[in-house]
Design goal:
Blueprint lengths: L3 H30 L3 H27 L19 H28 L3 H6 L1 H24 L3 H11 L12
Helix pairs in contact: 1-2, 1-3, 2-6, 3-5
The structure holds MU-OXO-diiron (FEO).
Length: about 170
Amino acid sequence: MINEKVENILNSQINKEFYSAYLYLAMSAFFDEIGLFGFSNWTKVQAKEEMDHGMILFDYIIERDGTVKLEQIDAPQRDFQNPLQVFEKILEHEKFVTDSINCVASMSEDECDLATRHFINWYISEQVEEEANARDVITKLKMFGDEKSSLFHLDQELAKREYKAHSYKN
Ligand code: FEO
């Protein structure tokens, strides 16, 4: 059984993960519109990973005999300007998610729920990777500025990203 405070914060985290999927999908649509299909692929793959993050939390609550409470998902931002601005937004958003995950860890510890404290470690590591991935693309985008041939090569690189289903038990 899971206590109410921990159950609530986990449910709130489900909402944030599915919102993240929506945000990445909005970014993917923007990249499709401007013809950067590799960037679109990268953000679409990320959207699928975000849905996995949400579903892992969903399954965990059920496994702990808790109640899944799905809330309304906010509409994501749509007024994107260029790849650098999008990836800066990604980094900012992932930092927000990292803070949120840290709060889940902290609350589960306060509530002596060591199973959730252990479970959330997977997300803590995942956030380190996600922030680093966004920073990596930002660095490259800043390096070559508006140079079109470099943007084309980066687009080809991001086109190679493949979706692999996430599971914290793997
Ligand atoms: Fe599921 Fe991008 O955090």
